[in-house]
Amino acid sequence: MVTLKDIAERAGVSVSLVSGVINDSPYVRMTEATKQKVLDIIEESGYVPNHSARSLKFSRTDVLAVIIPHISDPIFEGLLAGVYAGAEKYGYVVMLGDARELVSGSKLLERIMGQGQVDGTLIRHSATLSNEVIGQLAKRRVPVVLMDVSDTKDLPWVGLDERNGTARAARHLLSLGHQRIGFLGGEREYPGTQRRIEGVRGELGKAGLHLTDKDIWFSHQEPAAGYATMRRLLESGDVPTGLVVNNVTTATGVLAAVADAGLRVPDDLSLVAYLDYPAAALVRPAITTVDQPLFDLGYQSVELFERLRRGEHCDSYTIKSPAPRLIKRSTTRKVGPTLVRRRA
Amino acid sequence: MVTLKDIAERAGVSVSLVSGVINDSPYVRMTEATKQKVLDIIEESGYVPNHSARSLKFSRTDVLAVIIPHISDPIFEGLLAGVYAGAEKYGYVVMLGDARELVSGSKLLERIMGQGQVDGTLIRHSATLSNEVIGQLAKRRVPVVLMDVSDTKDLPWVGLDERNGTARAARHLLSLGHQRIGFLGGEREYPGTQRRIEGVRGELGKAGLHLTDKDIWFSHQEPAAGYATMRRLLESGDVPTGLVVNNVTTATGVLAAVADAGLRVPDDLSLVAYLDYPAAALVRPAITTVDQPLFDLGYQSVELFERLRRGEHCDSYTIKSPAPRLIKRSTTRKVGPTLVRRRA
DNA sequence: CTGAAAGCGCTTACAG
DNA sequence: CTGAAAGCGCTTACAG
What we know:
DNA-binding, 13 helices, homodimer, 6-stranded mixed beta sheet, alpha/beta
């Protein structure tokens, strides 16, 4: 391996001189000629500074750990794109981890908790992640930011306007004449779920309607869980005409369950999914969704992290703009004759 | 930050002694009592060795860079699970990168190419990744392994039995009476695509049939690309009765295009997708797929990497077992009357 | 304008 | 059985 020392020898100068040219250090001065000579030798030898040595010197690793509930869930694509963009901007490389891997004794946790391995951690909170782990992280020397609204006072966070998001979904259903609207999806323990339910409840309240407990169906996020939950809902025999599903990933399973029951969307049931991703437009029926600025969430989380890291004081906050946007596709329609007949 | 020196002082011993107990070094001996005392102090002080310092000393980082064409594509879920499992086994943490980020000048490339930043790189080859980048990587000091069959002699690889995989798909269609079978998906420049086409072609050949060039439709992998390509196929007015789609992700878009054209799957067109993921069972119609051992591919790639890293000689190879497995769901059926009528 | 030295936190032969 | 010293590759005040 070629080192600074090698370059210095080949150039006939001292190592500090070489280090100086690499870092454009104001402390070390040199003639333009020697600088160029050193640069040429670096170029031809393919020298790259040893990163571990710099890490040790500066106690910074330039790696940012990013934990999300489920790596391969396409719902996180936008979020990750934002995180990667922010990371690139500030010179970080991201170490992506699955929350399910973040358990006691795992290498991942060890690394994140250890010293000198990562400069900080961004976490998309989820029910998968125990409060114990969160608590441990909060005690770390390096910043941890939650990419999610949170009830924790210990950790800084940036979140989406969840209430407004599901309220937007409910409003759409209401405008289509739906009077009985249910909520399906989300884990009960997850703080975001409560806010999403409140969003629907609040909107129904304005219309003089109610979201009753029996119309709330908690569910894990995977399509298979959505399928199973929707099946139970259907078997209960007491089905709302409109459904706010949290979230698109879950919705694909929900749609399959409806189809298997011989019901049609949107003729027999209208459905709007909270959160959007491109594939929602490419299933049939295409899913009506509420789009939220997930890219911004990722990007701004890195920004917040960076400020924290520089010792600036930062408050947690909710991204209010752009506001949640309804994307009308094909899973919602006016409460119509088919439905009425069926329910009669 | 608490260091080795701090621990040594608190325990009243030398730093080498402390280092010795941490690493169970055979060079440094101590009484059971002092060992326990040191261990207690480490415990109570929450000391964790500085990773950068160890990296510098051992010139190893314990991080493995893993590059895939598209981070959020669920098709890679199994592959990643295998990689993560292997990484955990050998004590690596993974730095996941998107091939689309791996461009000249990016932090990601810089890190992967640099020294002392990663111990090696696993790459899922793709058309996205230029040969130039691959070439640069091949020159690196640290091992690079391709998680894919490849034509490169420069880089070690482990791959799937692509030919046999698509042959299995074609065989299924043939057994259902399909006589004209097309291939849709994959990028022309990607070596795997050629093998997949050969798989279909070979199987048709055995049945005395042909895969003509006009029944081969290249496409990018995203659903939207599958949609656009299928649309063009449909507009050509000359549609096969059976289609092998490469791969499931693309297939979701293909199915939407078929639905939008007012055609039904499998009544008007049978479709089998190459490669499987759980969500394929949770769309309607559920997609008939050919499952391949993607987890094994990821896991074994780490194994190969590890052996390489230890200086052992390793040949590239194709995973033949378990053999590709057909998962019959709802996108294929016998060439039937509907189809005949339509084509008449 | 340039070089020698100390130090980041660790490990490991070596001397006592 | 235990400690002092050198060294991994780098950067940065400091002395010349």
